[in-house]
Amino acid sequence: MSDPIDEFSFLPEQAAEAGIQALVPRGERLSLTLADGRTLSALRYTPEDSPGAAPVVTFLHGAGLNAHTWDTTILALGLPALAVDLPGHGDSSWRDDALYVARVLAPDVAAGVDAWTDAPQLLVGQSLGGLTAAAVAASRPDLVRELVVIDITPGLDPNAGAQQIRDFFAGPADWASRDELVERALAFGLGGGTRRKAERGVYFNSRIRPDGRVEWKHHFARLANAASAGPTVPEPVEGQDAVASVLGESGWEDLAAVAAPTTLLRGERGYVTDDDAAEFARRVPAASVAVVASGHNVQEEIPLELGARLRAMAAV
Q: Domains of the chain, with CATH numbers?
């Protein structure tokens, strides 16, 4: 695939594939220098007929993804929107400590929302982004009008998933070309079902280094590669369980502190089980819980339905 004019030149093609007839929004890459010198990056989408409109919906993606995972959902949404690259993903800086957990990521996200929006947002987060969105809503209630958490609850590992995905990212740390990454994605049964979609996904989630080699943008691929290449050591199961317990409790504390209306949207084939959903309902009794016909990446599997649902919520 030849490089596009810019990262937003795919939008008309994506709209046509999804059968979306509305005008394609204008896309803009944003960058914010954080207090410690790292960079937070995001995408702002503005309807063609409202060029000055500020975002009303902000999106946070899951681990190993980037802001472009929301493209088709935002096309279906039809409203001014902001999609943030979480630290360690997309065009945002990697963290030296590799600590990608909700309460650590939340202050960076809040700084971006503060800088790039002018009113409380419908804040939507999937997987790791969902836990981060809850932490943002708890710590900065002035930024959040309503919270939507997609297919994650505290206690679940937002970096977990099919062994296929972990094996995919645990391959070589760099590649000769993006075509090699596309072939690897297709060989693993990934990429969205067509070569064209796989090419777009690889383009958005990779970069060409100064030496001409291609690497994944997100830090998780580097971490997975390092882990797969390292010596085999016994897993500290008790320690891991303790850490998971602590992180899980902090997530429940964040959700309990959220003042905004909250919805858990779970895929019927996703990561959140019936028991997880029941625990969510018990711990956050004021929240709504809805099930949709999707797997974990709801924004990619049913973007039209998700966009329509969020448009209705944003209009309230």
A: 11-159+252-315 (3.40.50.1820)
- Choosing from 108, 151, 254, 276, the catalytic residue is 151
Q: What is the pLDDT of residues 43-80, one digit of tens each?
A: 999 998 888 899 999 999 998 899 999 999 999 999 99
Give 290's strand partners: 265
The pLDDT tens digits of the residues spanning 257-290 come to 999 999 999 999 999 999 999 999 999 999 999 9
- Catalytic site includes residue 3: no
Active site residue 288: no
| DSSP states along the chain | -PPPSSTTTTHHHHHHHHT--SPPPEEEEEEEE-TTS-EEEEEEEE-TT-TTPPPSEEEE--TT--GGGGHHHHHHH-S-EEEEE-TTSTTSPPPTT----HHHHHHHHHHHHHHH-SS-EEEEEETHHHHHHHHHHHH-GGGEEEEEEES--TTS-TT---HHHHHHHTS-S-BS-HHHHHHHHHHTT-SSSSHHHHHHHHHHHEEE-TTS-EEESSHHHHHHHHHHHSPP----HHHHHHHHHHHHHHHHHHHHH--S-EEEEEETTSS--HHHHHHHHHHSTTSEEEEES--S-HHHHSHHHHHHHHHHHHH-
206 is catalytic: no
- From 127, 206, 250, 294, the catalytic residue: 127
Q: Percent of the chain, pLDDT > 70?
A: 85
The distance from CA 296 to its chain's CA centroid, rounded to whole angstroms, is 11
Max Cα distance, the chain (Å): 58
